[in-house]
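pinned: reference chain
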Amino acid sequence: LAAVHRLDAPQLLKSFGEAVLLHKQASPFLTLAACVVLVALWIIALVPLTPLELTLGYLLGVGPSYVVVYLGKVLGCSVAFVLGRTVGRDWAHAQFGRHELLQAVALAVSERPFRICVIVRLAYIPIALKNYGLAVLPVRAFDYVGSLIAVELVMSVVLVTVGSTAKDLGAMLSGQQSRSTWQLGAMAVGAIFLLTLVSYISFFTHRALKQVREQSKSA
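pinned: its structure tokens
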């Protein structure tokens, strides 16, 4: 984690952009495949994904970058989930197991696993919580992957569209460029689903506590 925090993401994105511009004409398919792998590794390494999505939209255009980001997200998130369930289980529990939001989700996930996974996927929270965080909960792999494929089919288009409309990549990544309607809309949707998740969890938590109290009285 310390190495990840020391990563110079802006410089890496600049070098990446130069490499894509250099090779995408000569080897378009190889370039796109390399971009898919980079998105997956970016997610696994816990690096914020938004700058990379914007960069890909700027460099490749909406169509190619959408395919790249979608495939990279499905691959990277799936691998992160598997790592959180296997070799990285202890680390994932130490990093995310005590997170209050995930502890609350654990109470609701047993009854509505797919629905909870979809809401978490849509919520405006770090992608690491959506992957390594869900890995520490009793979520079935089928529900996790199903929600991932369905949600990212739609959400992957947002930031690459924003990136494709940018006139200056540096200004966009530094935050100097004003947010577009697409970006503001995506943030609003994420915030709404985060509130939905909290409300949904509160309902299940209240019901679970009621059941516990009733069982205690009957005993």
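why pinned: Residues 83 and 89 are 7 Å apart (CA to CA). Confidence is low (pLDDT under 50) at residues 1-5.
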